[in-house]
């Protein structure tokens, strides 16, 4: 009989979508949220890419850690961060040139006449 013998099928559990005390999420919940398989979550856990808590034989994920993982691994966010960094560098370079220009112009005026 399925589900007997001490094995619990988490995929079929009606309680899977219930909030976990403290706001933590289960592996199937995170997989569903990220639209990947539970095996992918297992691989990310093994690789150390996705932080998790192990409580006895259960695994839980902090929603904040999952959100941070998405930001770290998102190509769109990475491109946005690269563009913002390039813009900051360009602004810093313009500021540097402007300051250098002002210093150069101010030192050219005759001081000791």
Biggest pleated-sheet summary: 2 strands, antiparallel
- Backbone structural class: mainly alpha
For the record, give the distance between the C-alpha atoms at the N and C termini, rounded to a whole number. Answer: 104 Å
Order of SSEs, N→C?
A: HHEEHH
Oligomer: single chain
Radius of gyration: 27 Å
Q: What's the overall average pLDDT, rounded?
A: 76
> Which architecture of the largest domain would the CATH scheme give at its second level?
Orthogonal Bundle
Annotation field: number of helices: 4
Given as residue ranges, the uncertain stretches (5+ residues, pLDDT < 50) are 1-14
- Kindly give the count of domains: 2
Apparent shape? elongated
CATH topology of the largest domain: Arc Repressor Mutant, subunit A
Number of strands: 2
Write the layout of secondary structure elements.
Elements: H1 27-34, H2 38-47, E1 53-55, E2 58-60, H3 63-73, H4 75-108
Antiparallel strand pairs: 1-2
Helix pairs in contact: 1-2
């Amino acid at each position: 009989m399925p589900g007997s013998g001490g094995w619990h099928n988490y995929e079929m559990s009606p309680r899977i979508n219930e909030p976990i005390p403290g706001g933590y999420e289960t592996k199937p919940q995170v997989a569903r949220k990220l639209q990947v398989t539970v095996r992918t979550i297992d691989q990310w856990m093994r690789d150390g890419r996705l932080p998790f808590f192990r409580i006895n034989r259960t695994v839980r994920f902090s929603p904040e850690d999952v959100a941070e993982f998405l930001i770290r691994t998102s190509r769109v966010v990475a491109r946005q961060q690269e563009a913002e960094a390039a813009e900051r560098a360009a602004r810093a370079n313009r500021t540097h040139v402007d300051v250098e220009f002002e210093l150069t112009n101010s030192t050219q005026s005759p001081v000791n006449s």
